[in-house]
Design a protein that fits this description.
Strand order of the largest sheet: 1-2
Low-confidence stretches: none
Largest sheet: 2 strands, antiparallel
Number of helices: 5
Mean pLDDT: 85
Structural class: mainly alpha
Radius of gyration: 19 Å
Helix content: 55-70%
Number of domains: 1
Distance between the termini: 41 Å
Strand content: 5-15%
Length: 135
């Protein structure tokens, strides 16, 4: 696989956010690939079969519930503290909590729009940021 690199310092102001956004989307796609490999292992099947199922799941919350159920079926409570942290499911430090946060951030990156904001401290300094729709 050939990797193309871009010198972010050579890109104009308008392009840096788009490049960072593209990199974040690529990172999330790689995260999803890891999850599909994990699904393959949980189901004891082949990657083509696991991928056929995994990539048809379009709801991240539903996907996470599927993983929670499969992990419980496969391992019971053996790795509960790892997946859920201390306390109730979805605990403060569990991996599922981080996965839900990652999913929320992915949705912001995908669905929010780029906007330029003038700072109040430096009127000639623009900050490019993502803003929620309809605000």
């Amino acid at each position: 696989m050939k990797v193309t690199t871009v010198d972010i310092n050579a890109v104009g102001k308008a392009g840096k956010l788009q490049i960072a956004r593209a990199a974040a989307i690529e990172a999330y796609a790689r995260f999803e690939q890891s999850l599909s490999i994990f699904l393959c292992d949980l189901l004891g099947t082949t990657m083509p079969k696991a991928s056929a199922v995994f990539y048809k799941i379009t709801n991240a919350s539903g996907r996470n519930k599927i993983f929670e159920n499969l992990i419980k079926i496969e391992y019971g409570n053996k790795y509960r503290i790892y997946w859920h942290g201390e306390g109730k499911p979805g605990g403060k430090h569990g991996l599922f909590k981080l996965i839900y946060q990652l999913d929320d951030t992915r949705n912001e990156i995908i669905h929010w729009t780029a906007s330029r904001i003038l700072t109040t401290s430096e009127l000639n300094k623009e900050i490019e940021t993502l803003v929620p729709p309809n605000r």
